[in-house]
Specification:
The structure is a single chain. It contains no helices and eleven strands. By secondary structure, it is mainly β. Strands 2, 4, 5, 6, 9, 10 and 11 form a seven-stranded mixed β-sheet that branches. Strands 1-3-8-7 form a four-stranded antiparallel β-sheet, with no helix packed on it. 31% of the residues are buried.
């Protein structure tokens, strides 16, 4: 079994920062891409950022320049540093991992709320 456990969500004011973490555990040989997605009330889940095992990154246009994704391969952990947060960033943030020989997994989600 593989588990993804997220942490770091919370309530902040506009302009402030948060750092999300997601640790993968279980029967893991290696992890290919990891990423963060988010889902706001009444909206579909959308990509926020992804990172390959080699460190190549991809961001949604709405977060470019404000969010930074990184990972620690030794710890099977991915991070999302979120700066200059806006009310429209309010959503449940989900961690995602593509794990070799195991498939794709999702975390349980962590709430991020940004007040104006």
């Amino acid at each position: 079994q593989v588990q993804l456990v997220e942490s770091g969500g919370g309530l902040v004011q506009a302009g402030e920062s948060l750092r999300l973490s997601c640790a993968a555990s279980g029967s893991i040989f290696s992890i290919n891409s990891m990423g963060w997605y988010r889902q706001a009330p009444g909206k579909e889940r959308e990509l926020v950022a992804t990172i390959t095992r080699g460190g190549s990154t991809n961001y949604a246009n709405s977060v470019k320049g404000r969010f930074t994704i990184s990972r620690d391969n030794a710890k099977n952990t991915v991070y999302l540093q979120m700066n200059s947060l806006r009310p429209e960033d309010t959503a449940v943030y989900y961690c995602h991992a593509d794990i070799s020989f195991r498939g794709r997994y999702w975390g349980q989600g962590t709430q991020v709320t940004v007040s104006s």
